[in-house]
Specification:
Elements lengths: L13 H12 L27 H20 L10 H21 L7 H14 L14 H26 L7
Helix pairs in contact: 1-2, 1-3, 2-3
Length: about 170
């Protein structure tokens, strides 16, 4: 859940998120014996079968997305553009996607993770606009900022070479 006021450290460990994602898909389970009536538990949840790392990562990424959607249910429409409120769920989505990829030795960032990040922006943050928009400086200021270092570098190189040819030991 996304609290309106920050509480605690505001972070969950990557391992906990990854474990949650794995357990949610049935990728991680242990066979156990039922102790009641002396019978074995032969009805364990079915294991998902995947052909490639990409398919496994896709399943984990889907769980990350479901967790993000669950967290975002507690955020009201006026709070959607308040970074203090949405930073935790957004960061957890990013950490879950990255942690899942790292666990599988799958490249990150990748197209699937990017799709989920874009999907979050499209679904939740498309009406948010930057309050203080940043504009490019005027052309004369921009040219001065570009050419000043370019002209200064040869001068500084000349000073360094001139001082190194002096021959006196420098303290």
């Amino acid at each position: 859940m996304a609290p309106c006021a920050p509480t605690g450290s505001g972070r969950l460990s990557r391992g906990l998120l990854l474990l949650w994602a794995l357990l949610g898909r049935g990728l991680c389970h242990t066979a156990s014996k039922a102790e009641g009536f002396g019978q074995e538990a032969r009805t364990s949840p079915p294991m998902a079968k995947y052909n490639s790392t990409e398919e496994v990562y896709g399943a984990l990424a889907e769980r990350c997305w479901e967790f993000f959607v669950h967290l975002m249910r507690n955020v009201t429409a006026p709070q959607l553009c308040d970074w203090k409120v949405i930073s935790r769920p957004y960061s957890l989505l990013q950490e879950c996607l990255e942690g899942s990829a790292e666990h599988l030795n799958y490249s990150y960032p990748n197209a699937l993770a990017e799709r989920f990040i874009f999907q979050s922006h499209h679904r939740y943050f498309h009406n948010c606009s930057v309050g203080d928009q940043v504009f490019d400086p005027p052309e004369d200021v921009l040219l001065a900022m570009v050419f000043a270092p370019i002209c200064l570098i040869p001068f500084l190189v000349t000073v360094v070479i001139w001082r190194s040819k002096d021959g006196k030991a420098q303290p």
